[in-house]
Structures are given as C-alpha cells and as structure tokens.
Design brief:
mainly alpha, single chain, about 70% helix, three-stranded parallel beta sheet
Length: about 130
C-alpha cells in the first residue's frame, strides 16, 4: 500500500493539529510505504514564512497599541493592558516555536518517507499541457 502525504501533513505535525501523524509514521514498513513530493517540503517552508510574517505584523501592532495605552495614566494598569501584553507574549512564543517545530516535523517525515523529486522533463511536459 502506498500512502501519499502532502504539505498540510507536515504543517499539521509542526502545529500539533495532526494528532494521528505519529501513529501513521510509526506504521510505515515494506507493506505500507509513505511517499511525499520534495515540493511539499518547500511549500511547508513557504507556509512557515507566511505565518512568521503574520505573527511579526501582529506583534508590531500589539507593540504600537501597548505603547499608546502606556501613555495614558488611567489605563496603564487596566485589564486591557494585561490582555494585550499576554497576547503579545503568546504571539512571540508561537513565533519562536515555528521554525524548530517545522524542522522537527520535516525530520520525522524524512526518517520514514520516500521522497519523490519531479524531473525537469515531467514539469515541462505538464506546463505544455496546461498552456
């Protein structure tokens, strides 16, 4: 049996959303081959970069809002300030975990999956049929 996995599988492992991934990977053997295109690894990295950009924008926006609130003496100790600071800390923690989590997910997959690399010829043929 061949099991073909894609980009979202890696991202699911990295983000903890794919709970059954470890179970699937542990069952790979001669009878159950796991296969993945090399392109999926690149797509996962690009997706990670997109998430990093979103988190950086969120953190920047939270920093601006926190700075504005800190200028107001009445709001410095407000619940809103605490919530904003906690949100910024959570976003920063998530940002710091993205790269190591993706690296670990890719390593897990590479240990058991056969990586398929499309040939230049097959890509060119597909482009010709598309256009």
């Amino acid at each position: 049996m061949l099991i073909y996995i894609e980009t979202n599988f890696i991202l699911g492992i990295a983000t903890g959303r794919e709970i059954s991934a470890d179970q699937l990977l542990s069952r790979a053997n001669i009878e159950r081959k796991i296969m993945m295109s090399s392109i999926c690894f690149l797509e996962a990295i690009v997706a990670l970069e997109g998430q990093q950009n979103q988190l950086n924008k969120l953190i920047e926006s939270l920093n601006i809002t926190i700075g504005e609130i800190q200028r107001s003496p009445q709001q410095r100790s407000s619940n809103e300030m605490s919530a904003l600071t906690a949100s910024k800390d959570a976003a920063t923690n998530l940002l710091n975990q993205l790269k190591p989590s993706l690296s670990a997910a890719i390593e897990k997959v590479l240990r058991v999956a056969e990586v398929i690399t499309p040939s230049v010829n097959s890509v060119q043929k597909r482009l010709i049929t598309l256009f």
